């Protein structure tokens, strides 16, 4: 047994695989998942008593904590500021400290306060110039609650964390929220301290790492308190304004104000720590004014604390222009919305040439979704006085029957595409949401055969006709027709600088034209317009907010021709601008642009490496040549090869797309761009360079240059790695050590260089962090995860580490995935990771990490980053077939082909939530859920080929991987029916096991 396990472990660590990949017959029937529309009655919103966008006073504060696992409050600093001539100026500054602070620390604070050199930073007189000093409870009762009552703006950076440090108790709130108790009193019955019922709790519901809803909880005397407080997190406002996840340091730099003091907190109470805290509050106050100045340039009425994302800004502008929300303005039946929702799919992403180095020319579409909106005329829909859906069956058949590539470059053709078709798929190339190869639930563009008709958006039907050479079989079609124009539309100024008249101008055209024209003249306004264009072009029309309610209720659902009710405690609440017909047409229009580009490349007998939503990496070089590639249609030295397109040919394709350019060509010269990365130093003013690409699956690719077997990674995809905590600190030049950034971190570039050198047997260059245990870092943003035996130190918003325990002897003796959930306290010093101690949440006992397998199996043995990377290139593109016509496996190389999917049944589903492993934002990823709709009595049965694969894995391993009982696993393996959701959970567990 020991020898066999050692052999398994060695093989796993060297290859990243336990066994040979399993193969499935690609012709086996698949369940097809389609989105559903679920109408939910809208609750009446609170009546807001605030009349001012920016109140006269604000309270800015920050806390300093211990640096141990508890991160308890040591002390904090605050500034009360008054709005004077459109700017908040400090009128009072003070310090507060923990109620149980040691006397020695209190003495330090008192001495600091008494020092003549440490006067308050007063900016508006008359005011007291001395620092105030008080306990936490005094600060809450004398400063905090009065500010709440007056309607002052409470301001912080990463405000949920600081609020949780002020709390004396945290309880589970409704809807995955924290209910924070800030005030206590002696119980009249017991004499013990209890939550003061005459003071509201602060309820914080975190949506992700950038956004949280903060409000006041219930209260005995409701009439004495506002219905909601005014809490402004500048991290969230920065995200809304700039689409960037800033740290305080980076935000100050981005908004051009003096930043924070350079200092590493020690967790002690010292003059230097106090000055550091005051510096953070000062930086936050300056940042508030800078963000206020930028926010006020936007002529929108919404309060700043209600700006949760870039989409919030876009919605506010639509409101400012008096565009009426479609779901309230247009009378569209739930059935029609269900048709549109069934037609909805996200962006197209796929790998077409796998594990083969090829020369490339990288291209992408200029602002793809705004461009699609302009081409389809979606602004006319939004500003229409009414819309209706008419029968379009005969016209749709006529349009599709005569489609060739060239007519699709006519802008008038695109104006005819706002329709939806009920297709009887007969080997048509269409987007398909299914479990590919029994492994991964995903969306692929593949051949589909189905006895059940499915609704698709018009542009997808056009794309299929282009790629297959035959139109789909249309059973019926409906077209969206906009009539008239809304009255009362108002002109506004985008960013306070760009005037737009919504009655006369197309919003999407105007924003992109102005963004390009300001790109060199005024970068801040250009960046703002880019954010506005993207956030207002697509996501808001398909926004649904998921919620879990305590008591199950019947929810109606509509999906295509199907409607029904389901008893569930899962609810999807449509966003304010939810309108599926637009969302479906926009994303399908993006896929049509890619299909046209693919067809152009095909017609020149070329190939592409990958495509990703709005980009395509074409196999190309300055001159035409053949490149070795398994499955290629050409021959080179007796081997398969593909042909590169020349630079001139790619430029010719780009010029062809300019026929569709909906913008002023003097401003926006091209809608298909050859990316800057194709030039020397990514500088478009410099000559083209020889660029190579390498891909393993959708979104896992790298672009690089090569000279004398030296490789330089120019672009590295972090997909599939982003959930991991960076194994090395960021360089000072990159920002804060632990700062989150949208840019690809340095360690991902190092990882790709290591993988590339290893794959092609170049001189090795191993990163120093390879042997470290692989970690995910999470924040305790919700009380509804990790409920079992949660340690005292895991307070709200505390960080913790989640080591990825090895599936080969990684667990202590007697444990496996089903009874061992291991976390450790957060630790930024990577040198200590190898020996960290943590807790198994399922038994409450402490265990230690060891990177050397323990013969007695008493320690936890995580996978290293090296193991994770060894698996990384083994990720199969399961949506495609290999050159041999069989399902793509981890070993497949060369030119991939489209899979042929045979539909078994259509399963309506809710919002996709199965991609948490690619996000790594919060612990909700540990509790994945897939919501399916349909009659509860309908059972799912696995087909024979699937069951034969699963039997090889073994019942015990299947139980560990899926978390299902032995009886349920035996039922599935024997071909008995189980609930659809149970089968979905089973498939996801197997996917995680195989990943």
Notes on the protein architecture:
The chain has 995 residues and is of the alpha+beta class. Among the domains are: 1-23 and 685-894 and 916-927, no CATH class; 57-157 and 226-302, Nucleotidyltransferase, domain 5 (2-Layer Sandwich), CATH 3.30.420; 935-995, no CATH class. The chain is built from 25 helices and 47 strands. The strands form 13 sheets. Strands 14, 16, 27, 28, 32, 33, 34, 35 and 36 form a 9-stranded mixed β-sheet that branches. Helix 5 (234-242) runs parallel beside helix 7 (271-296), helix 8 crosses helix 17 and helix 15 packs parallel to helix 18. It starts with a helix and ends with a helix. Mean pLDDT is 87; it is low at 1-24, 732-742 and 914-928.
